[in-house]
Amino acid sequence: MHALDGVKVLDLGTFIAGPFCATVLGEFGAEVVKVERPGGGDHLRRFGTDTECGDTLVWLSEARNKRSVTINFADPRGLELVRELIAWADIVIENFRPGVMEKWGLGPEAVQEINPRAIMLRVSAYGQSGPLRDLPGFARIAHAFSGLAYLAGEPDRVPVTPGSTSLADYMTGMYGVIGVLMALRARDATGRGQVVDIALFETIFRALDELAPAYQRYGYVRERMGADTVNVVPHSHYRTADDQYVAIACSHDDMFRRLALAMGRPELSAPDRFGPKQNRLAARDEVNKIVAEWVGSLTCDEVVTRCRAQDVPAGKVNSIADIFADPQYAHRGTITTQESRIGPLAVPGVVPTLSETPGEIRWLGPELGAHTDGVLDEILGRSVEEITQLRADGVV
After folding, report:
1. Which of 83, 101, 145, 193 sits 20 to 30 Å CA-CA off 353?
2. Of 11, 55, 169, 253, which is the active-site residue?
3. Which GO terms describe its molecular function (predicted)?
4. Domain for residue 226, yes or no?
């Protein structure tokens, strides 16, 4: 049994943000039908590292558990097939620019008319309303517009994209999961679906802790701080004697007291030294210098061992090579190896872990149109002859 057995998802999206929501739902048992353009398919198939099967590593990992169906939206018969899939679905996911679905006659009103119980997830750069609603956008633009990129990097250097990742896409997909699951819960009470409207920038802005109240209340504009954290110190990355980096987090006074013990310098946590948080913040550079010198005199393993002995949160700043060798990742199944069209492939595992209805990866990203015949037959009731004609006419 899976948590979402029986839930039917129609994935009309492209790239990552909307489709990632469908991916997570599919991991926990939802049946996901992904509609793609005949011939080319989702652009995600060509985003990332190319492989010998013709699709990228990103596609193979992120299109897991989906049934790929090709439908030509330019043909009225294709749009009719999509309408029938909307009638079948519990959740309809799209992440086109606002207005595109309406152009096809598949806006919220049309979806509700076709299927009053359908929940429609709409993902866009700036949301379905507002002066910027019609503009395109990707994760990088969301990082910039949300304020995250402004905070990322070293002082007086070019703002960076954190981790060079599509963080906004994945976070928006996760918020999409939250939204549609809440809408499903509401549908249990009302019998009706609704629209879930998410903007890429909003999901990032929501995670920026006290940035908004600090500005509104005190006019404080946070600047780039490198690896440091605004309200506590030491809370950063420090280079070790063997040229590694260690993350150390001291979020309160008692934690700093324990770090001082780990360093063999308990006097540092005295009330007239750096024991109180305000003293540490006032002497940020000095405190960081003391910690950096101590870390720099030891190997990475020595620093981590001494910190953990005093219950101080610390860990190596891992590369992906470190992660593959880490026993905690192995124990948790955070990386799992699955069969794919290019052979065994290591991909991120399913998150979160449910004790009674765990998720699973049943297959990785499929070939374009691999499930078209099956979906047209099993879900839409088309005969073999009808499917053959639709394919001959370029409808699928």
Report:
1. 193
2. 169
3. formyl-CoA transferase activity
4. no
